[in-house]
Design a protein that fits this description.
heterodimer; A: 376 residues; alpha+beta; 58% helix; elongated; B: 310 residues; alpha/beta; four-stranded antiparallel β-sheet; disordered N terminus
Chain lengths: 376, 310
């Protein structure tokens, strides 16, 4: 590896890109779209925290657009050059495979960051149109995470372009991997949550008031010799207390919440320091998304009291509302585990793995050549 | 195949011993051995699909051979590709140019990838553009260059780091006659300075004019050119008289005389036979305007190769 050669190769890439008209057209479209998203954001948020909300919407918009645009920069980096017969002339110089791949990554990354710069005016518009400026810390962290995400997507593209022989397929594969992170994590979270259901027990003094799937709980057999749902006496709580086991099944989001960690939007939201309003609610999109992701970390109540006749030793109707309050968002976030570094780490691992695989496919003198690929 | 006896003293040119390379079930190169000496231009001749490009890719350190040994400028490109690359200049048959870069920028980038400083690379680029005759186009993007001009740029790119060994894959295709002559003179000069040059080409007359030696490849293996065979000579009489064929056939009793456009073709087993035929024709009073081999020696050898493949 040699820094000056990486610099020359990166400069070569950027120079070629900057001399294509399509690059500027795409920049213009990107700018308009981010501006549009920011404007829509301004309609959603109202009150004193408008600008925080708008900026967070704008940054999410930039991440969305970057994840849609970046694969086209790097998804054909290596095999596209091979097709244009410009890879081999570089490989016969002193530039190593690592130099070439890293330069492609840096060039793709830098291009993605240029798009971030184009989105800045939209962010500024968001800043000046609101009353109260969002915290600098929030903004800085969000932009840094955004830059890291663009780097991850670039690396995935470069790696796949070196692994797959045909540019069309590697660009498509890059999109698929990005979509796997953005949508695949959501789908697997949803399915995983339903697959990992747990049964809930209801404690009641009057099973005839509790409904289960098969009818009234009072008709259920005893748990001594039957599967759930069944009835089991709980004299330890009150004289007539019965536990209705398997009264219902609840999805266990708390067991699969980590699947969401690798989602780029979750990483962005989870990493960004949250600002709360006077009522303890997050003021921006990042905070609300973070709240949603952190909330699912909480395990559901697996043993709960019946609403009409709980095991309190008193007859039904004399129910005391316990006054148990739902925790505030600030408390939920405070009592949960941050996951963004795990998610970002997993993404980085995936990207690095693809880069290494790609490097082994691009090494010269080549011993094995990918089927259907040419050398020069 | 691992231990191949090394014949002859080591040298700074190209040595190839029993090299083989296959792609799946396709045996592109099966058994190639030859030497291309420094100070010489060696032609690589063979029909399409003989494995010439695969061989050049192995010499250029891009492909590893399955078996056999390669030395380029005394270095094994498989075990020490960096050292080999510093000594090899490779001009591929595919015209890969960075379309958006100017000719000058292309050479500067290449020079810097070979480790030159910006100033050095800049100077060398300007020098090379003059040498290959592209000085007027140094500020033009490669996109607007013609095929022949791109070819010259490719040649300049191969020469950026003053290589000791030059591998040229079809360098003359696409060049106009003036550029071909310039190319020939340039390669002659480089060989004179001690470089070992290996050229593959289909333009055999071209190759014949500039090469000192030839390596013949057929079906992935080097073959020795077959010994002297019957060769056609072209004969033309002054004024193309009617019945020229009969006149010549009478003078050369026993030879088959064929008509070919305005001239005649006669096959002679060797040069001695040709010389005595000429004497016979002159003695018979025929006004011979043209008497020369109908094909070059390389072309003849190439045709023999093609014939042997069938």
């Amino acid at each position: 590896m040699n820094l000056s050669r990486i610099g020359v190769l990166t400069g070569l890439e950027l120079r070629q890109r900057a001399r294509r008209a399509g690059f500027y057209v795409l920049l213009g479209v990107f700018f308009v779209v981010v501006l549009g998203i920011t404007w829509l954001g301004s309609l959603i948020f109202a009150g004193e925290n408008v600008s925080s909300g708008m900026v967070s919407v704008a940054i999410c918009g930039v991440l969305l657009m970057a994840s849609l645009v970046t694969p086209t920069f790097t998804g054909n980096a290596i095999n596209g050059d091979r097709d244009a017969a410009t890879l081999a002339p570089v490989q016969v110089t002193l530039a190593t495979t690592a130099d070439i791949l890293l330069a492609k990554l840096l060039a793709g990354w830098a291009t993605g960051l240029v798009y971030l710069l184009v989105a800045l005016p939209a962010l500024l518009y968001a800043l000046v149109s609101g009353d109260e400026a969002p915290r600098a810390g929030t903004l800085v962290v969000a932009v840094l995470v955004l830059a890291a995400e663009i780097g991850v997507i670039s690396a995935i593209g470069v790696g796949l372009s070196a692994v797959i022989a045909r540019p069309l397929f590697s660009v498509a594969a890059t999109y698929l991997v990005v979509m796997l992170l953005v949508i695949g994590t959501l789908i697997s979270f949803g399915l995983g949550m339903l697959a990992a259901r747990s049964s809930v027990s209801v404690l009641t003094e009057d099973p005839s008031q509790v409904y289960v799937e098969t009818g009234m709980a009072s008709t259920l057999p005893s748990c001594d010799g039957a599967d759930e749902p069944c009835l089991s006496p709980r004299p330890d709580l009150s004289e007539t207390c019965m536990e209705v086991r398997g009264a219902e099944l609840v999805p266990r989001a708390d067991r699969v919440w980590w699947l969401l960690a690798a989602n780029p939007f979750v990483v962005l939201a989870d990493a960004t320091p949250t600002v709360y309003d006077g009522n303890g609610w997050p003021v921006d999109v990042f905070g609300n998304l973070k709240l949603a992701v952190r909330e699912v970390q909480r395990a559901p109540e697996l043993v709960r009291d019946d609403w009409t006749d709980p095991c309190d030793g008193k007859p039904a109707g004399e129910v005391q509302t316990t006054g148990e309050e739902y925790p505030l968002p600030r408390e939920i976030i405070g009592s949960s585990v941050p996951s963004w570094f795990v998610g970002l780490g997993a993404q980085a691992l995936l990207a690095a793995g693809l880069m290494l695989w790609g490097a082994s496919r691009t090494r010269t003198p080549a011993r094995r050549t990918p089927p259907g690929s040419r050398i020069a | 195949m691992s231990t191949t006896p090394w014949q002859g003293p080591p040298h700074e040119g190209i040595s190839v011993r029993a090299v083989a390379r296959s792609f799946g079930s396709v045996h592109a190169v099966r058994d190639v051995s030859f030497d291309a000496l420094p100070g010489q231009i060696t032609g690589l001749v063979g029909p399409n699909g003989a494995g010439k490009t695969t061989l050049l890719l192995m010499l250029a350190s891009l492909l590893a051979p399955d078996a056999g040994e390669i030395r380029v400028a005394g270095v094994d490109p498989v075990t020490d590709p960096a050292a080999a690359r510093a000594r090899i200049g490779w001009m591929p048959d595919a015209l890969g140019a960075w379309e958006a870069l100017t000719a000058h920028e292309t050479l500067v980038v290449t020079g810097r990838l070979y480790g030159a400083t910006r100033a050095e690379a800049d100077r060398r680029a300007a020098e090379l553009l003059v040498e290959v005759g592209l000085a007027d186009l140094s500020a033009s993007p490669a996109r607007v260059l013609s095929r022949g001009q791109k070819q010259l740029l490719g040649l300049a790119r191969a020469l950026v780091h003053r290589p000791r060994v030059l591998l040229l894959d079809e360098p003359a295709s696409g060049l106009d006659p003036a550029a071909r002559i310039a190319l020939r003179e340039m390669l002659r000069r480089l060989a004179g300075e001690g470089a070992a040059i290996l050229i593959s080409s289909h333009v055999l007359s071209e190759l014949e004019e500039m090469t000192d030696a030839a390596v013949f490849m057929s079906r992935g293996a080097t073959v020795t050119a077959s010994g002297p065979r019957a060769r056609d000579w072209r004969i033309r009489l002054v004024g193309d008289p009617v019945g020229a064929r009969e006149l010549v056939a009478r003078a050369l009793a026993g030879s088959e005389v064929r008509a070919d456009r305005r001239s005649l073709l006669v096959a002679f087993p060797d040069e001695t036979a040709a010389a005595s035929a000429l004497t016979a024709m002159v003695a018979a009073g025929l006004a011979v305007a043209e008497f020369a081999p109908a094909s070059g020696a390389l072309e003849q050898a190439f045709l023999d190769l093609k014939g042997a493949e069938r």
